[in-house]
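Regression report. Comparing outputs from two consecutive submissions.

Submission 1:
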Amino acid sequence: MHPIILASASPRRQDLLTMLGLEFKVIASSFEERAKLDPAAPPAEQVVTTARGKAEEVFRLTASVPETADSLVIGADTIVVLDGEVLGKPADQAEARRMLKTLSGRWHQVFTGLALLHREKTLTAYEMTRVHFRPLTDREIDAYLRTGEPMDKAGAYGIQGLGAIFVDRIEGCFYNVMGLPVPRLALLLKEYGINLPEVKTLVGTGD
């Protein structure tokens, strides 16, 4: 099995890879090209472009090093989209409050792009999930902001944390909203000869 490198510092993505039984190394990418992307480009194109940019940056750093030359690099990027507006990570509490008030009582979309790079081939894909928030009160929003949870998350909420209390409906992959669409990733990994049930069994038995 190819050594795996996750080009992300996201604790959620790391937790999900660990849940799948994968051993991996984290080399966070500093790539951030969203400001250079065409804002009129479809959200799916934006996340795939950014995910690939993250993976390519880390791939260039590792491909010439013997210990990591055969590594499979995984890049991912997640955005929240409401009425065509991309909601990334909030810059401050005021922006986080605005995002949450806008999401209140409405459907939005979560897109995650995936890019898997190896010296033999590159694969990209994306996943989209629809999420609905129940109506939120100003008191609930302010209390949530005080937890600090919204500040490092696209759309200013984390469905795997306290943000889950705001979500009353979801259509599509739950893990995609966390930032890593696990079923889609599993299909891509199979293209590199990595079968997740077999990996999990080997890890679990200690073989």
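Submission 2:
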Amino acid sequence: MSCTEHYPGHLLDLIKTSKYVHLATCSPDCIPSVALMNYTYIPCSKSFRDDTSKNDYIIFATFADTEKYENIVKNPNVSMLFHDWITANNLSVRKSTLSQSGTPDPSLTPRGNPMVASSPTHPSKLLHLLQELNQAELNQMSATIKGYAKAITPNSEESNYYKSLLLKTNPDAGVFILGENTVIVKVKIESAKVTDSENNTSIYN
């Protein structure tokens, strides 16, 4: 199914631009598992050349010795949660680089420990973040996507094709994408449920 034909633009934007997806899998014994994953949305127009199904996919990489991969092999039905938790751009949730940080002053750290700042001089980062969150614009919707997962044969042309796209959109996740024991998985998108902050729900099949 092509999502561009069935899903509204705001849902597609969420799927295309979210950094991570929460992936839920389930074992044959009905034991659930959730993992935070890098991913790439692949519209049918960008699917592998031999794929004539006209489906849109979510592509991700996983190690073959993980619980999620074992679950997918035995039970390919999965669920994915997309949510951009914060849309405000001014929150100080990113850590500073070393070049942006000054040299620690031992007199400002307990017992001369340069790794721990004293609380009077450095207020709680968590408290500061919560204060910022109180004034931030939060995202108004989240989407749950149900799909059917299929592992792609490692080192095949299809696997290498999707691996290159996944790496292009997630250059910071090379350790997960290029690992020797990595398997590329594609999830055929089958349905979506969107809920906003007012608890309004829309379902798309």
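Expected: both submissions complete independently.
Actual: both completed, but the second showed a warning that disappeared on reload.
Relevant detail on submission 2: The first strand starts at residue 20 and ends at 26.
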